[in-house]
Amino acid sequence: MNIIRVEGLKYKYPHTDKLALDDLTFDIKKGEFIGIVGKNTAGKSTLCYALTGLVPHFFKGAYGGQVYVDDLEILKSDISDISLKAGLVFENPFSQMTGSKYTVAEEIAFGLENMGVDREEMITRINESLLLLDIEHIKDKNPFSLSGGQMQRLAIASVIAMRPDVLILDEPTSQLDPQGTEEVFKVVEKLTKEGITIIMAEHKIEKIAQYSDRVMLLHNGRLIDFDTPQKVFSREDILDFGVSPPIFTKICRVLNIRDANTDLYPVTLEQVPKKELTLSKETISKRR
Amino acid sequence: MNLIRVQDLSFSYGDNQMILQGLNLEFTEQTTAIIGQNGAGKTTFVKLLKGLLTPSSGDIFINNINTKELIAAKLAKYIGLVFQNPNDQIFKSKVIDEVMFGPLNIGYSEKESKEYAIEALELVGLSGEVDRNPYDLSLSQRKMITVASVLAMQTNIIIFDEPTMGQDYEGKEKLKEIMRRLHHNGKLVISILHDMDFVAEVFERTIVFNRGRVLMDGDTRSVFSKVEMLKGAYLDQPFVTQVGKQLGFAETFLNVDELVEYAVSREIHN
Amino acid sequence: MQSMTLYVEKNSLIHKIDPISKLLFVVISIAISYIVPTISVVLGSVVISILLLIIGKVFRHILPIIGVSLILILSIIIVQGLFHPESKTPLFTLGGIVFYKEGISYALLLTLRVINMLCAFGVLILTTKPDELIETLIKKGMSPKLGYIFLSVLQIVPQMRATMGKITDAQRSRGMETQGNVWIRMKALFPLIGPVVLNSLNDTRERAIALEIRGFNAKGVKTFYNPSRNYPYRIAIKFGLILVLILAIVWRVWK
Fold first, then answer.
1. What's the rounded Cα separation, in Å, for the pair B196 and B35?
2. Smallest Cβ distance to B264: which of A148, A242, A287?
3. What are the residue ranges spanned by the domains of chain C?
4. To the nearest whole percent, how much of chain A has pLDDT over 90?
């Protein structure tokens, strides 16, 4: 069942000449984990905005094509209605705090207050979110006193409390240290097991390869490829799009080590065979 | 030649928590990476080197000058620091003016400053944008402007604070090239980093910070071979090192070429 | 990173009073100091505020605030004491300059009004949590957006201070001097203004996006997470305050 349908999406920011999104068409099934890769300026963030209605309702600009999230057509719906279907978390944890709430629990409540959810239901959902994001022990702390990783998890919790079907994350670990990054990916994995559809734009290629069901490759606003991680990262021309494949893939390509099941190059550590290598004569002669 | 000497350095912001405790370090011309989780004291350490903070106890010598004797603005002649966020820094409306700000401040003439600025912009690949408004350029390009701003000051020590944050593949490759070129030109390059593969590829020496102390300090290869100690500092080995292990090799590899060469030459000898 | 509010956490009777009553107190207290412009009445109002501050265990927190306005008070005394239009009766001389009774008298009134205003506001600000005040106002019908703006400004100021710190570090790092005479310090402001403003604008825009996607502009009635607090004697206090105001107006008209 398709939770997201995009048909011929085109978009240009106000006062610019170039199309930020150029004729995108694709579907995403419920429960999938989608990774979006591409160089800076490829259109990853813009696509994230387009799936939540920020494009075009917040950013204005020239818009064409159709985007459906569940049964809502983005162009014809309010951002607040869309937010119940698709939530967005972005790079800077700090600027996602409302600034008007004094505790973590109140911060999560903000979205629910805006949507007029009744108090008992609010409390249930807040507790759910606190547990899911593993921030129950800090629920009375001031949001601005948290670490980067904790603040980002709070941002996710605040969005999840609105029970969207889809969670979109735009480079959520960019500003976090390795531990914070690990926390966010663990949480997202948990959410995916709960059935939430995840769409994540990221530069951390090895992580994307590890978690994604399918990977979308964008370049200059166009959709270049949308397939399994192995298929996308095994492409010969991937560097032309400013994307470096996972290190595992780079090594395996040179040594001609393939995944026995798919005959494509491994993209995660687990897919790299644990045994002693036997390299073909061809590989050796290529190197000499 | 000791460019930087740190003796018994301790630092805290005033309340009881010690951010750094009894550090003793020396830096020569080796490219050096500083790694560790957030809160371990890396940024504080680097600010102390720059004279932006004063040690609570102990001393830091930059080119044999004690940092306690010069204000940060004067130390800027000897040691440069590239900050994380270009938006925290850029305020001129022309790229060339922004890059000339530093050298002019530390006493170079208008002519010299312009010369150094143009040279620096060349190194970072922005020679074509000299007269443009920095805010008309992309975030990546603005990042390069901040790098050029520090290079133009002709310091012989340059520190980068998490330069790879938010960078895509091309941005990172450019940074690698810049750092290698600087090292080739005799500068001491120090960088705080979270990208272990970047560290493994570029840096000769790696220092691991953990809870305000130095946990490990040595050549990059030996540091990355100690899996358990790294885990203790919440760090992983570079991916390329992990692959080497997975394939059954005992060696600690620092880049793809090394691993491939090794695998191929082993095959030939069998 | 704590927020920048003047609220002092204590367990007193005044803390338990409903914020709207306290707001009403401030308004009426200031109004009376104008409606009945005699020194004794205004002094009385000041005394009442001070008593409330003492009961609220926050009296010593108002002193620095009054201290800051001492300069203003002093200038009032000097200006009025010397130059009040109805100056006839000399009161005393100081270093050859004559101060007149009428002027000093008027100055005293103005000074008491200032202190009265500060103390009354003190009763409100020092004993009321900002979010409680705003939430109560929203429940009474104030626009939630206005309330949000007010509260976020309070929380954002400490963050701006931190950003200022980062920006100053970056510019000092490039040789900009910040210590020295006034001229050096003024020159040091220019490289700071641009980045501070731009950072705030960027931050504001990102925050606006975050709010939008959490339903900030949703139409319909909003609900509240924090339970309605029960304030003792809410109605009695408000009634009493309004009564005082009416009495004052009556006195004025009757005069």
1. 8
2. A287
3. 14-135+229-254, 143-212
4. 75
Confidence of residue A23 (pLDDT cuts 50, 70, 90): very high
Spatial contact of C14 and C133, defined as CB atoms under 8 Å apart: no
Q: Which fold has domain A2-245?
A: Rossmann fold (3.40.50)
Taking an 8 Å cut-off on Cβ atoms, the answer to whether C175 and B88 are in contact is no
Contacts of C88 (CB under 8 A, 6+ apart): C100, C101, C102
Asked whether residue B175 is domain-assigned, the answer is yes
Task: State both tokens at C5.
Answer: 């509010």
- How much is the average pLDDT of B242-257? 90
pLDDT at B136: 86
Residues B68, B27, single domain; the answer is yes
B249-256: long-range contacts (C-beta < 8 A, 24 or more apart)? B252/B221, B252/B222, B252/B224, B252/B225, B254/B200, B254/B201, B254/B220, B254/B221, B254/B224, B255/B197, B255/B200, B255/B201, B256/A247, B256/A250, B256/A251, B256/A254
- ipTM, two decimals: 0.85
Inform me whether the C-beta atom of residue B194 falls under 8 Å from chain A C-beta atoms: yes
Task: Identify each DSSP E strand in chain B by its residue range.
Answer: 4-12, 18-27, 32-35, 57-62, 65-66, 79-82, 157-161, 188-192, 205-210, 213-219
Residue B83 located in a structural domain: no
Q: Quick one: chain A helix, strand, coil %, rounded to 5?
A: 40, 20, 40
Residues from chain A contacting residue C223 (CB–CB below 8 Å): 112-113, 116-119, 122
A81, A95, A123: residue with CB nearest C210: A95
One domain, residues B63 and B7: yes
Domain span at residue B231 reads 1-78+155-236
Please state the rounded mean pLDDT for residues A236-265. 90
How many Cβ pairs within 8 Å bridge chains A and B?
96
Whether residue B43 lies inside any domain: the answer is yes
Determine the residue of chain C that is closest to B154 in CA distance.
C174
Claim to verify: residue B174 and residue B58 sit in the same structural domain: yes
Distance CA B7, CA B66 (A): 11
Q: Does residue C155 contact residue C131 with C-beta atoms inside 8 Å?
A: no
Structural tokens at position C188: 């040091």
Domain boundaries, chain A: 2-245, 246-288
User: How many structural domains is chain B composed of?
Assistant: 3
State pTM to two decimals: 0.84
B140 & B35 share domain: no
DSSP letter, residue B69: G
Nearest CA in chain A to C210: A96
